[in-house]
Design a protein that fits this description.
The protein has 389 residues and is an alpha+beta fold. 32% of the residues lie in helices and 17% in strands. It has 9 helices and 9 strands.
């Protein structure tokens, strides 16, 4: 009963922003769109289900079919929520802005075998940092509980990338959230969750009742207070390859937080906190990695709801991210940020995403990005540097 009460509060009654709690009929995807999307999805299916057993990966039952079902639920959700452009992302729809940064690799703490990919040399990359709320409704105020996200896009990264459509792009993405663990363990629960979100209303309430642990994890995440995204910690939650080992990522501020919560926070107080910080001074964050200990029972790759214990393997710093004083909230730059795409599979093979959650993301993220950009009549393109605004 305790789980049920918390789940119901988190999913609907509390008005939290990740979900649409009204019962809404799904809009059909027309035949032409279906044909295009089916072909697009087929390009990813084979590669998405290739696994690295030596790194702890195992295929989930009916993984390909389940992934396809999730895609269709998310497409239906987008068509339900956006009948006309601009179509937003299905999650992390509200961004606080994209900030210019320098990503300086500092690989001294890494064992030589893990100094690969972007961490092979102590070099600097220009980067975009996108800070966001996790929900699907961009109009929900920051004062509502939500997942908070950070996506990093490095530029000028040579080498072939894992995405077939972006193999020659000179970018590398890292995506994170403000929680150490993901909220869904099994693929079948991901299917049920995406279906409940697509249908809303009673379907979502039913999911809360039948999946109390998922709902309770979300409840705990939504209960976290974020004061300033520039002074927050973010985690990959899922595992990635680095050399011959799985790892997890973490970003933390270089200094202890100094911001305080406004007495009367407004609907966009997180962006306002970032604007006020970068108007006066620079900001600094560190990217860290947690190498796998070799114990896959203690540190599973396929179950992203399990926190890897730091006493078994500590995080080590691998890069310093510096943001010079700047203005980032002009209409042109905010629109540029809206049009960017981020996926963990925008990646060198040395940083290959691991686990079922990431394998689902491979085709889902690309499919949704292609659909969203096509719907908005905006080209999908990777940035090559800092455009003037």
């Amino acid at each position: 009963m305790k789980y049920f009460a918390l789940s119901a509060t988190a999913l609907c009654l509390g008005g939290l922003s990740l979900f649409a709690c009204q019962q809404t009929p799904l809009a059909p995807v027309n035949a032409q769109q279906n044909a295009r999307l089916e072909q697009f999805q087929a390009n990813y299916q084979a590669s998405a289900t290739q696994i690295a057993q030596n790194l702890g990966e195992t295929l989930a039952p009916n993984e390909a079919a389940a992934t396809r079902e999730i895609e269709q639920h998310i497409l239906a959700t987008l068509k339900k929520n956006f009948s006309a452009p601009p179509m937003k992302r299905d999650v992390h729809a509200k961004h606080h802005g994209c900030v210019k940064a320098q990503f300086q690799v500092q690989n001294q703490a890494l064992p030589p075998a893990l100094r690969v990919g972007v961490f092979a040399q102590n070099q600097s990359f220009p980067a975009w940092l996108r800070f966001s709320n996790g929900g699907s409704d961009p109009n929900v105020p920051d004062t509502k509980g939500d997942i908070r996200g950070l996506a990093i896009k490095l530029m000028g990264v040579p080498g072939k990338k894992l995405l077939p459509t972006q193999a020659d792009a000179r970018t590398q993405d890292f995506v994170m959230m403000n929680n150490r663990e993901f909220f869904i363990e099994e693929l079948k629960d991901y299917v049920a969750f995406s279906s409940a979100v697509a249908h809303g209303g009673l379907s979502l309430a039913g999911f809360a009742i039948t999946h109390p642990r998922v709902s309770y994890r979300l409840y705990k995440i939504f209960g976290k207070q974020t004061i300033n995204p520039l002074e927050s910690e973010f985690f990959s939650a899922t595992a990635y390859q680095l050399g011959n080992r799985p790892i997890k990522f973490k970003v933390r501020p270089c200094q202890a937080p100094r911001s305080t919560m406004p007495a009367k926070p407004g609907p966009n107080y997180l962006r306002e906190a970032m604007v006020n910080t970068l108007k006066q001074q620079s900001a600094c964050m560190e990217l860290m990695v947690q190498p796998h200990s070799g114990n896959f029972e203690q540190m599973p790759v396929e179950n992203a709801t399990v926190e890897w214990p730091e006493q078994a393997s500590a995080y080590v710093p691998v890069a310093r991210i510096t943001m010079a004083p700047q203005s980032f909230d002009s209409p042109a730059q905010m629109q540029f940020c809206e049009n960017l795409s981020f996926t963990p599979w925008h990646s060198l093979p040395e940083h290959r995403p691991l686990g079922v959650t990431n394998r689902v993301r491979k085709s889902v993220y690309e499919l949704i990005s292609e659909f969203r950009h096509s719907f908005n009549q905006v080209p999908r393109q990777e940035p090559e540097g800092f455009a003037p605004f």
